[in-house]
């Protein structure tokens, strides 16, 4: 079979690329121009569309794979959601917290010291106001950036331990290329405002978010997919020949393409391409990612917390974040129950050495320690998801290796796209916009 644009993966990126090709095709049909350039076919290995942004129903609960909240930085994405999902989605104001030193403080830590022990507040303010704090840190490193922006106290009490726990990596090894979008940077005045009472200003990309009124994040994905006509499910791409320009699936079907859009994790793409140059293969080995074990629990007690989610920078809790879907998605949880999602990171260099039963016991004990649940609480629902590709690690090698790989593939008419496809820290909005960008690029020739 011959296809103009062969898209691998029906996650948000692949679907968005297809959706935008459909849209452009209508535009070109009217002008009688280039519309064949918009032809596409999506191949997806599983029977379900949505990739990581799927939802599942278990015993009356609806869970996502961890939380999947819809953030809008661009008016394009915001308008798309409003136009296509209208009253099916609800706008929420974030209610996020941090638990450290035995107390809850408002997110983000660096703008909300109120409530922390006095000696910690003092250390944080002293560090913030100390001008001489950069000399010993390597340039372009996350660690240096933290000291530069926040000083030693905030770095010591939140930025470094949280990021070390989350990335499972010495923060010296992280670069500063991913930060601007994700870490709020309050001015000194804002820090002071949030030191003596709860700060009123909201910071960061997720201070507001949309979430479907009913049915989990999948509602968004299903709407997007409803515009895409050409999707083949259960077609696992197992081989790609970049010189002859074909992809073959496990069932033995061969598809010849002009352009290949891959949302397959970049490090897996390496193993699918049968005729890749040896030299570039080595670059793939330098790419690193972390994985997440996501545990979803249904607890037999109402309203165990009023918070949306909580971050945990300290090592004496196994998770780096927990959250409560019932507070932003009330229909996801049966009445008289509560729901919790719990995220624990691990990696190829920091293993998680517990079996499922032990892990649940540790999680349960930690939740009791914090006072989220009691030891008598029943937990009738336990759902564990092992998310192998969860976050891309931006270390010192990321930019160069990724750039070389993408450059090489582009020359062969392969367009790696999406969070794992293009190996970038992208949100769902980022993936949606990436799909659009790739579609426009393909059409512009
Ligand atoms: C723990 C966690 C929490 C998150 N929370 C949020 C959040 O709150 N808000 C937010 O905006 N984003 C969040 N994200 C990010 C979001 O999930 C991703 O950005 C987005 O879903 C990635 O979409 P994608 O299409 O690029 O990739 P994927 O979702 O991975 O889709 C890729 C698709 O390709 C298919 N595929 C793979 N290999 C093959 C093959 N060989 N042949 C055929 N098909 C194949 C897969 O089955 C899948 O359907 C979170 C991510 C994680 C890990």
Question: Your description of this structure?
Answer:
There is one protein chain. The longest helix has 26 residues. The strands form 4 sheets. Strands 1, 2, 9, 10, 11, 12 and 18 form a 7-stranded mixed beta sheet that branches. The protein has a 7-stranded mixed beta sheet with strand order 7-6-14-15-16-13-17. β11 and β12 form a beta hairpin. It contains 13 helices and 18 strands. The protein is globular.
CATH class of the domain at 2-45 and 234-285 and 396-444: Alpha Beta
Ligands: flavin-adenine dinucleotide
CATH topology value of the domain at 2-45 and 234-285 and 396-444: FAD/NAD(P)-binding domain
Q: What's the mean pLDDT score?
A: 95
- What is the radius of gyration? 23 Å
Question: Main beta sheet, described?
Answer: 7 strands, mixed
Report, as a whole number of angstroms, the end-to-end distance.
22 Å
User: Number of DSSP helices?
Assistant: 13
Question: For this structure, what is the CATH homologous superfamily of the domain at 2-45 and 234-285 and 396-444?
Answer: FAD/NAD(P)-binding domain
Tell me what portion of residues adopts beta-strand conformation: 15-25%
Shape: globular
The secondary-structure class comes to: alpha/beta
Unreliable segments of 5+ consecutive residues? none
Q: Helix coverage percent of residues?
A: 25-40%
Number of strands: 18
